[in-house]
Amino acid sequence: MNNFSFHSPTRIVFGKGALDQMKKYIGPLGKKVLLVYGKGSIKKNGVYDKICSQLSNHEIWELSDVMPNPRVDKVKEGADLCREHGIDVIVAAGGGSVFDCSKAIAAACFYDGDPWDLVVGKAKVSQALPIACVVTMSATGSEMNDTAVISNWDLHQKIGLHDDHICPTVSFLDPENLFTVPFSQMAAGIADILSHLFEQYFTDVEDAYVQDGLAVGCMKACIHYGPIVLKDPSNYEACSNLMWAAPMALNGLLKTGYSMGWSCHPMEHVLSAYYDVTHGVGLAILTPRWMRYILDESTISRFKKYGVEVWGIDANLDDFEIARKAIQKTEEFLFETLQLPRSLSQLGILEESLPEMAKSCVETKGGSVQGYKTLYEKDVLAIYKACL
Length: 388
Ligand code: NZQ
Ligand code: ZN
Description:
Elements: E1 11-14, H1 22-26, E2 32-37, H2 41-44, H3 47-54, E3 59-63, H4 72-85, E4 89-94, H5 96-108, H6 115-120, E5 131-135, E6 147-152, E7 157-162, E8 170-173, H7 183-201, H8 209-231, H9 236-249, H10 264-275, H11 279-294, H12 300-311, H13 319-337, H14 354-364, E9 369-370, E10 374-375, H15 377-387
Parallel strand pairs: 1-8, 2-3, 2-4, 4-5, 5-8
Antiparallel strand pairs: 6-7, 9-10
Bound molecules: 5,6-dihydroxy-NADP and zinc ion (ZN).
Zinc ion (ZN) is lined by residues 140, 192, 195-196, 265, 279.
């Protein structure tokens, strides 16, 4: 196992009625609140009213209409609001897009230049406002990590800002708040959680038994509870397990001791940056094609382990047969059980745009995607083409 340093400063308040504890945890963070949310689902499902009643002793300003794949313009708007009103704390209610936008705002309000400088690393985050997340959609784990993924539509770039300062101070996870998530959004969220697990589990490090067990446990939770929650959206047991699997997959715990960079995420971020696709949908389309592309003698032992431990495939079969069956099972889960789109063409992505996107993908990563297997421009293009 590789050396590591692990730090997770976010308090998680989990369970039925979790929002009832907002006053207790947000009170000490300051009086002036910027409440950030999306297009309005929190007004329909009662979350907005619960937040306002908990924060009745605070002064509240609002930033609404944060779109999926949040853009740097919205970050700028939020940072201006924070500076203008002397905001003390940001309360973000929604999913990864609202959280990421809020995290970037929290940092950008202490930076006088263009917030994009922080995203691309041209300027360093010096400090950030405290952030409290109210989770209404489980996928990214942003509620418990140091990352904000921001898009710049003019440049067709979508990049992750990583910094300890932007870890949320506290996050409220009430599984009942997932009951109203639409089928397609829930399915995309599950595909995203699985992808986070795959990105870390597929590694050359063979002796990280603890991390492997955590990853396999979270994968099994997604595979078991995915179909249950899609059939019965208000199944508390399913919602609570998925709600905890999301931050477990991406709060930094799993990457401890593993060494590899990521593969499908860099490829997906380019699809979103050019076509504004739903993150989990792009990942679902890419994942089985990436798996097939990298399967060879050097990766077979990991695929065998995945097939046997996650899908229960007979360990006595030929190794490549196990691997191919495991990829087939993954594909069936994503496209049949979760009913996600299975091709880039279905998303309106044109074949002629693939070379430019493949080039942009590797350029953003410094020349190649350093994942489980290094991918060069020709490899990324081949995977995109296999997804058409
Ligand atoms: O805008 P509203 O009306 O709130 O509707 C939202 C939005 O349309 C809806 N929704 C959320 N909770 C709901 C609900 N509808 C009904 N009932 C509820 N309870 O669902 C949509 C949510 O969209 P979004 O926040 O975009 O989803 P997600 O959580 O999948 O976030 C995706 C974004 O996070 C980034 C992605 O790239 C993408 O930009 N990521 C962030 C990461 C991180 N910070 O660590 C890592 C990820 O890999 C990912 O890149
Ligand atoms: Zn993701």
